[in-house]
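Project standup — Tuesday

K.O.: blocked on the structure for the chain from last sprint. Re-posting the sequence here as requested.
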Amino acid sequence: MFKKILTKYLLIWLTLTCILAYYWPRLVTGFDPFVLPPIDCHWFKISAAEIYISVTMLMIGSLLPVDELRAVAKHWTQIVSGTAVQYITMPLLAFISACIFHLSGPYFIGIMLVGCVPGAMASNMLVMIARGNVSYSVGLTTSATLLSPAVVPVTLYLAISVLGPHFGCTDSVNQSYFNSQVVIDMAKTLLLTVVLPVGIGFSLARVSKRWHAFSQMFGEIVANLVIIMIIASVVAGNRGREFPVQMIAPLILLNFGGFLAGWIGGKYILRLDIKKACALMIEIGMQNAGLGVMLAGIYFGTQPQVAMCCAMFTFGCMFTGIVLVQITRVLMDRWGVE
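H.V.: unblocked you, prediction finished:
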């Protein structure tokens, strides 16, 4: 019953939780459950966002069907081609959106950063709800994530240094962003928070009947609750900041353009089956703007509008993504897709 209510009214719970996260300091003084400090010890340091994402990926890995994973392994070219569609269309759509709405300065940088980052980990959970091919979605996320240390810096450099001056971006890119240590650290973080939890969850579900039964019963519930907390924490982290209303339309265009590009690319260009096309559609429309927020804080800290653009997209793409997967789930039922 709880699972059905949570899934059916996910939009309502997401909205209410985000409102609560925004106004929490006015209601309660002291502990803030939406802004958690990182865990810091002698061996490692991990943020709340990384914990949330790791838990989500653990559940996704536990729910991966073996037959789907084997099928994807046999068709690895579909993962590579799907990743190529994402890394070509999203930066291009971001640039087109910037041109249409005459964005300049930090707003140009912000939308380009959103367009350059890989797909969000949350897309895997949404694909699961939509009854798409989850293992293909995980393959796409993993592929894009593994390539991101090389693709994202180069794409950002070309967008900001070559095209940026024409959009009022006169400041040069911080060259420290392109050093080898940053690339290594970013790759290590993505591997530990995405690939490793999926592998652990998948392995646990194969060797432990109890874990398999637990994940089948509670996996989707846990994933939904974690996604709600991820978005609520983003809202809480941006309390009191100026809201750039002019960025709503460009980001919506980028979001819906990504969904459309994913569907057309998957169904009509790559000729994928309907479950894989659904996965590619959601994967491309769901950019990892949470990663963009982190990068903006490190490399464009003097321009807070950059991070705000990424934060807006984080909430927006989750909101539209939830609506999309609910519609897709109904269509899958009508079409008799298992």
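K.O.: great, moving the ticket to review. Residues 47-332 form a domain with the Na+/H+ antiporter like fold fold (CATH 1.20.1530.20). Strands lie at 39-40, 45-46.
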